[in-house]
Amino acid sequence: MEMIQTVKKMQTEALESSGVDFIRLGLALFFMVAVLAYSFLSLGSVPNSMFLAIAALFGAYLAMNIGANDVANNVGPAVGSKALTMGGAIVIAAIFEAGGAFIAGGDVVETIKKGIIDINAFGGNVDPFIWAMMAALLAAALWLNFATAVKAPVSTTHSIVGGVMGAGIAAAGFSIVSWGTMSKIAASWIISPVLGGVIAAIFLFAIKKTMVYKEDKITAAKIWVPIFVAIMSWAFVTYLTLKGLKKIWPSIVDVLSFLPDEKKPSFIVAAIFGLIIAAIVYFIVKKTVTARAAKLDNTRAGINLLFTVPLIFAAALLSFAHGANDVANAIGPLAAISDAVITGGISSKAGIPFWIMGVGALGIAIGLALYGPKLIKTVGGEITELDQMRAFSVAMSASITVIIASQLGLPVSSTHIAIGGIFGVGFLREFLEPSYEKNIIRHEQATLRDEKILLRAYGAELKTLELKDDKQKDDYIRIVDLYKMIDVEEDRIKESKKQLKSVEKVKYVKRDAVKKIIAAWIITVPAAAILSAAIFFMIKGIVL
Known about the structure:
Elements: H1 2-42, H2 49-69, H3 72-80, H4 86-104, E1 108-110, H5 126-149, H6 156-172, H7 179-212, H8 217-244, H9 249-255, H10 267-293, H11 300-305, H12 308-330, H13 332-343, E2 349-351, H14 354-382, H15 388-408, H16 414-432, H17 435-467, H18 473-505, H19 511-543
Antiparallel strand pairs: 1-2
């Protein structure tokens, strides 16, 4: 009877799950069809408008997959640390992603991200260029869809790079690729996570050293929390100025005439902006922490609470910067197709029509809402356990690493930095806080040692009794008991060995997640390239 009830419960859960999946799919398809219809109806009189309409469909599909995969890196740590609920994170990320795209996304984008292929190789022939960009859009989207399905956070930029490279090779051969640029992108697979991990670990260690390891944690928090939050403010304002405002900087300079007349903000200007905001934030946070200190427990949990609000701001600012920087890059191929269809030529830079930016921004928001929770859970809790101070360290790493890398000219990926930061805090925990696991291991080892000693004692006693010539009735009874006790001890030793092996496998950073993510990073560019080349030949075969 109980088994029948269990089966019924499983059936009910399966039906509910399939119903939710069906609704998600329906909403996603509705958005894609709406984009297709709008682009076709509004541009129907333009030659090759069908190509643009289909490309817009692919772009909408790509945007939703970016929302489902890439945005998780911005809000995942905040959700994993319980600073934000899943619903709150989705709302904040959707608003700030769209805001970043519309406000600071700029009106011009590179048609070929990072100059990975030479557009002159197309010889001014527009059709192969359009096919290549369509293939790149669809290949990047398919790869991101697959990565999301297997819970692997991967780089959107690398997916698009792979798609453009594969289609370019299919269209004009291997000579079209700038292999120097590709080698820099490959280098970022190592540079990004290592830098992100090291910086996140440094900040977490600093937080522990200045507050967590102190006897009077609250007094230490009054001193150090405002400093750490001010550093975060400096980093984020500098980061946003360099990355998020560079495309609208000329407009800002027109309004604020005292700024240097430059096409994009310099590091010095961005850093000064950051220092001004950091000073203001320091005094605000100092006052807030002092007011809250009396109500907090003198524990690690009490300190954690002080990082909750900064984490919410970090999630919002990271989402804004991502919307401003990466959304425009993601829709670069679609903007390139639009430019090629309307002008009949191929350009290295193209204007972004408002409707295309809308496809990117709204698509990301919809993809995040519908399919984002899966990757947010992975980033927030399935790699290592995060609390507020660990998540704060990851957010700090995300902004500071980009600043350092941009000044040194190092190629980095924001996705790899964020995940590297999570690896960093997890491995630091393994290094600094193994006491609980060590105590368990010591206990299991001691138990195993005692059981082996007892087994040897039973064995020695049994051997002595069996060699005894004048055995009595009690001796035979004892021999039987010893055989039974030896069997029991042997079973216990086997179980203890199994338990010890299980405990020794427990790590703060889940090794299976690390292996899966790193493998996905390594194969992202080649996988997207192969997909893109195949799609290019398919489109070419259909058209011709």
